[in-house]
Amino acid sequence: MAKRAVVLLSGGLDSTTVLFWAQRRGYRPTALIVDYGQRHKREIKAARRVAKAAGAPWHEISLSLPWLRDNYLINTKKKLPHVSLARIGKNGIPPTYVPGRNTILLALGVSLADSIGAEAVIYGANALDYSDYPDCRPDFISAFSRAARLGTRQGAEQGRIRVLAPLSRLDKSAIVKLGRKLKAPLHITWSCYEGDARPCGCCDSCQLRAKGFAAAGVADPAQ
User: Fold this and answer.
1) Fewest CB atoms within 10 Å of the CB: 67, 81, 88, 89?
2) 70 burial via Cβ count (<10 Å: 0-12, 13-18, 19+)
């Protein structure tokens, strides 16, 4: 019988690759799609399409977090700051950081995993996120995994629930190559932070995605 896992699925390049990685590793994944008020609603539509393409069931929930209303990724009235590719990751934690987002999403993932008997919660933190986002760093992942084991029925009784970040040592080009190898539907993924009909090409996420595909030597199929 296949192992069960919960995959945090945003609809972007990283989480899509993670979903197909989980399947290749013998997991039977359930996707968790969360609308936390992000301005880029297209990623939610992309997440649904990815889950369908994978043949994976999913749960979709909406959160209302009023204290985050002024955040750049949530408040559409605020102009999203754009920096050059050379400056990304050089200025500390960026304005696109959403306080506690991954902590909240992982907690929801652990709750779902404990409810359905899944032994892993998997998300797409990667090497490019280390310096920018504290909730993507290896020590955070390790600590949250330990907390999941200590604070769940599965962890207490069987000691088997854990948090996995299989892309944590990979840069974008390596993720692109892995996604292609896994035959993940990268053409339907969405990475742009802006909420427009087309990717802006200027936000951090767009620039890093473009750099990843260029370094991998392949065209971005979503363009």
Assistant:
1) 67
2) exposed
